[in-house]
Amino acid sequence: MPASPFSSRLHGGLFAPGALAPLLTDGAEVRSMLLVWRALAAAQAAEGLIPETAARAIGRAALEAEIDPAALAEGTARSAVPVPALLAAFREAVGAPEPAGWVHWGATSQDVMDTALALRLRQALLVMEDGLDGAIRALAALAGGEAATPLAARTWAVPAVPTTLGAVAAEWGRPLLAARAALGAVRADALRVSLSGAAGTLSAMGPEGPAVRARMAGALGLLDPGASIHADRQGVAGLSAWCTRAAGASAKAAEDVIAMVAAGEARLEGAGASSTMPQKANPVLPSLVVALARAQVGLDAALQGARIHRGQRDGAAWMTEWLLLPQVLLGTNRALTALRETLEALRPDRAAMAAMGGDVLGLIHAEAISLALTGPLPRAEAQAETQRLAARARAQGTPLPALAARAHPDVAFPPAGTGTAEADARAFAARAREALG
C-alpha cells in the first residue's frame, strides 16, 4: 500500500483529497511563509522598526520569488524546520543586502510556520465547511422527503418500534448541524497570528512588538492572541477534536446505511462490484466513511498529546502535529464528501421498510399492545401478558395483534405509531435549510 492513500495514483480516486490537496503541499507551505514575512515587514515598517524601503523590497520579493522546495531539503533535514534554509534563499531573492537583512527581524521559525499554517487552515476550513454543508443539505432533503416513510427502529441491532426514515435522517443530521455551529469557536482558536520571538517575549522588537503583532494579524486576516501561543496548541488540538466530532457523526449515518443495505431496505446507486460475485453491490462509500472516522479517532488521540508541551517551544510536540494534522484534515473532509455521495446514491425500498424488518408476527407492536392493556390491567400485569402473547405468537406463528385482539376483545388496540418521528424529521429539515441559507 502507498505511504498515503490520499496522494496515491492507485487509491487516490477513492480517498479523493479534492480541494484540500493544493493547500497541503510543499509549495503552498513555502508561499504562505513568504506572505508572513511580507506582512511582518509591513507591520514593522509602520511601527518604525525597519525602513519603509526595506519593507517594500521584501513585499515585492515575497510576491515574485520562485523558490524550489526541493532546494531547501538538505537545510530542513539539518534544522528540522525549513525556515533557516528558506530565509537564506529568500534573502537572495530580495537582492540588495540592506533590505534583505531586515527579513524575519525579531521573529523566530515557529512564528513564521505557525502563522503560515493558520493562513492555509483558513482555506482548509472553508473547504471542509463546504463538504459539511453538502452532507447536511443531503440529509435535510432525505429527512423532509421521507418524513412519513415508515421504518423499523432498531435497538441492539434488532427491530424495536416503528419510526420513519426521515426521523432517522434527522438523527444523523443533528450532530452535524451542531458541529457546523461549533466552527466559529474552532476558527477563533486555529486562525491566530503567531509573533512571539525566540522565547515568547517579543524582546527583539521592544515595546512596539504587540503593535506589530496586531498590525500583522489585521493584514493577514487572522486573530491577534495578545500573547505568545508557541506552547499553546489549542488551535491545532481543537481543530482535530472538531474533525473527530464531524467524522464520527458522519460514520454513525454511514453505519446505519450499511445496515439498511444489508437488510434489503435500501440500495446504493452505482455501488461497488465484486471481483467474483456478480450479484454483489457493495456499500463502498459508507464503508469508507466508517474507516476514515475510525482512523481519525486514533490520529486525534495522538495529536492531543501535542498539548503536552515542554518549555516555551517543544520540537517533538511540533513534529507530532506535522505528522498527523494533514491526515486529519484530508480524512475528515473525505468522510464528509463521501457521506454526501452516499446519501445522494441512497435508494430506499419503501415496501421493504414498511415490512418492519421482516416482522411478519407483528412483534413490533408489542409496546403499543402493552400500553393499551395498561388500565384494564395493572401495568406490571399488562407487560407480563404482552410477553406471554409474544411468546405464543412465536410458538404458533400467529401475529401478535391478532392474538391480543382474540384474548382481549374489549380492548381497543391502536396500531403502533411513530410518535414525533414525522414532526422531528420536518423540524430538522427546516432548521438545516435555515442554517444553510
UniProtKB/TrEMBL annotation:
Tell whether ATP-binding is among the UniProt keywords: no
Q: Give the UniProt keywords, A-Z.
A: Isomerase
Question: Gene3D superfamilies given for it?
Answer: Fumarase/aspartase (C-terminal domain), Fumarase/aspartase (Central domain)
Q: Does the keyword Isomerase apply?
A: yes
Pfam families cross-referenced by the UniProt entry: Lyase_1 (PF00206)
Q: What residues does the Adenylosuccinate lyase C-terminal domain cover?
A: 361-429
| Protein family | Belongs to the class-II fumarase/aspartase family.
Query: What protein name does the entry list?
Result: 3-carboxy-cis,cis-muconate cycloisomerase
What is the scientific name of the source organism? Hasllibacter halocynthiae
